[in-house]
Design goal:
Structural class: alpha/beta
Radius of gyration: 26 Å
Number of helices: 20
Number of strands: 23
Largest sheet: 11 strands, mixed
Distance between the termini: 54 Å
Shape: globular
CATH architecture of the largest domain: 3-Layer(aba) Sandwich
Number of domains: 4
CATH superfamily of the largest domain: P-loop containing nucleotide triphosphate hydrolases
CATH class of the largest domain: Alpha Beta
């Protein structure tokens, strides 16, 4: 929770030590040491700073997101506006407290063809470059894609129609029909990669609302990191255009980018970081790996907040960045401090000041029932478990139903009825990447393994198993198949998994077991109903029999 001091100013952290020169260094000579000073730090004030950019780094669980929420709340309290790009749905609490608009990126699209330069040729070149970087396309595919984008602009202009991703996909299909064999293969690959971005049911995001208010864009339902990167860059392009057109704002506008290392060195991010001060625009970039951040963010951040980091290369980089030299063992003192920080503590480097160690308080999420449900439903929660959880928070049944309906309507929560077996009943899941059936059953497979004492983790990504289990020193790949794949694709998937794992286990609905029995020679096949009833001996036979 942000504390309020006697002057009514919010305080996001408390300084516990500041780097200072003087005194005895290890009892022998003068050097740098952390001088203990228990003073309070007023709200993060960017007035008079070189720019409005801030960098927050640290290992997973060290306190980055918590600090960001405290800072955002403090900035909003001083009149600033913000846009949070949220890859995991972690910022529901701050959105609710500050009454920010929340959008699901899967439902609210940005038309890439509206963003960027004025001429069609320049827009085509920018889009082709964006896709090339996000999907790591080769020169041949990039050239073909540029021609397809140009053709899309041309056809839509002739028809008096607004171009968009679905129109681009149509153009690629048209080019593919006329292409030779090698070009057709390249165009097919483009279709597969770009198809995730086309959706006729999406509503276009009203960016004027984003630019003029407080907004959280939830990216967790976009099904790949490439789609998230493209969406974020599209938003940044809209910000840059609005920034230039609108001139200097009366209040500051901050863009909060979690997992910002995904963006690498993007030109548009570099422009905003370098030019944003003139327009009262700043970037708060959060990353586990500071070296992976856009170079412009690293060099243009007026404040660096460094939580614990132990990875040697990243630790050395951060220590050099904060220390700015090693006279009298300055670098060594900073490095030791960053390496040994406790949770919630950070080394802060503000331009023009000596580094300090500060302790951040805890952001109070409050009794936001929607946030509680979303958090608990990440690994699937049953209707019974949900009711029990709500009773402990003294929430009325009618209020619970209203929140559930709202979350489902926004597509942020899905449900699936497990018809029989040990986990029979209605289940809810948030952050679903596939069908509700698939992701609920996968979560329950992981839960069953944990009940049996088997270490496992949910992978559930397009290019990896749904669940990876560890038994007797071996890694086992577990896949839940809904029946949507063809037999050929299922066999191809099994063969790929078998190259990297001790065994592949296919879990299916008992009603579909006959369809998958043909794979019993290359993998173990079991219904989820039987899997949920397994005991230790049965599981061992399944994995190693």
């Amino acid at each position: 929770m942000v504390n309020i001091n006697n002057n009514g100013e919010s305080e996001v952290c408390r300084i516990v030590a500041r780097l200072s020169i003087g005194g005895l260094y290890f009892g022998r000579s003068r050097g740098w040491h952390w001088k203990k000073r228990m003073i309070f730090r007023p709200r993060m004030d960017f007035g008079g700073m070189l720019n409005n950019n801030l960098m927050i780094t640290g290992s997973s669980g060290s306190g980055k997101s918590n600090a960001c929420k405290l800072i955002v709340e403090s900035l909003a309290g001083s009149g600033s506006r913000f846009l949070i790009l949220d890859p995991h749905g972690e910022y529901g609490g701050i959105a609710g407290r500050l009454k920010a608009r929340t959008y699901d990126a899967l439902e609210s699209s940005i038309n890439l063809f509206e963003v960027g330069s004025s001429s069609e040729y320049e827009k085509s070149a920018e889009l082709a470059q964006l896709f090339k970087k996000a999907f790591r396309l080769g020169e041949v595919q990039s050239s073909m894609l540029f021609r397809c984008i140009r053709y899309t602009f041309y056809i839509c202009r002739k028809k008096g129609k607004e171009p968009g991703m679905n129109e681009l996909l149509y153009s690629i299909r048209a080019f593919k029909e006329q292409a030779d064999k090698s070009e057709a293969a390249a165009l097919s690959s483009l279709l597969n990669r770009l198809s995730m971005l086309g959706n006729r049911d999406r509503k276009h995001l009203d960016f004027n609302e984003v630019w003029d208010g407080n907004t959280v864009l939830v990216l967790s339902r976009l099904h790949s990191s490439e789609a998230q990167v493209i969406y974020i860059e599209s938003i940044l392009r809209k910000v840059y255009s609005s920034m230039l057109e609108g001139g200097r704002r009366s209040e500051k506008f901050y863009i909060i980018i979690d997992e910002a290392e995904k963006l690498l060195d993007t030109e548009i991010l570099a422009r905003i970081a370098a030019e944003g001060r003139k327009y009262s625009v700043g970037i708060i970039a959060i990353a586990q790996r500071p070296k992976g951040l856009c170079r412009s963010i690293r060099s243009n951040s007026a404040v660096s907040i460094c939580f614990q980091q132990r990875e040697p290369e990243e630790l050395n980089y951060l220590s050099n960045l904060v220390a700015g030299g090693n006279e009298a063992n300055r670098f060594a003192e900073v490095k030791k401090a960053i390496r040994d920080l406790g949770k919630g503590f950070a080394v802060i480097q503000k331009s023009g000041e000596e580094p300090c160690i500060a302790r951040f308080g805890l952001f109070d999420e409050g009794a936001d029932i929607g946030l509680l449900i979303m958090e608990r439903a990440r690994s699937a929660i049953s209707a019974e478990e949900l009711s029990a959880m709500i009773k402990t928070n003294r929430i009325k049944e009618a209020e619970l139903r209203g929140v559930l309906e709202a979350l489902e309507r926004k597509g942020m929560l899905k449900k699936h009825e497990v018809e029989d077996g040990r986990f029979a009943g209605l289940w809810y899941i948030s952050g679903s990447r596939n069908s509700s059936e698939h992701d609920v059953i996968v979560a329950l497979i992981s839960r069953k393994l944990k009940l049996l004492g088997v270490r496992n983790y949910l992978y559930n990504r397009p290019f990896g198993p749904d669940v990876v289990a560890y038994a007797n020193g071996f890694a086992i790949a577990i896949e839940y198949e809904t029946g949507s794949k063809s037999a050929e694709k299922s066999l191809e998937m099994i063969r790929k998994r078998a190259m990297h794992y001790r065994k592949v286990v296919l879990v299916v609905d008992s009603r579909r077991i006959g369809h998958y029995s043909i794979f019993s020679g290359v993998s173990s096949v079991i219904s989820y109903q039987d899997f949920f009833e397994l005991e230790e001996t049965g599981l061992s036979n399944l994995f190693f029999g």
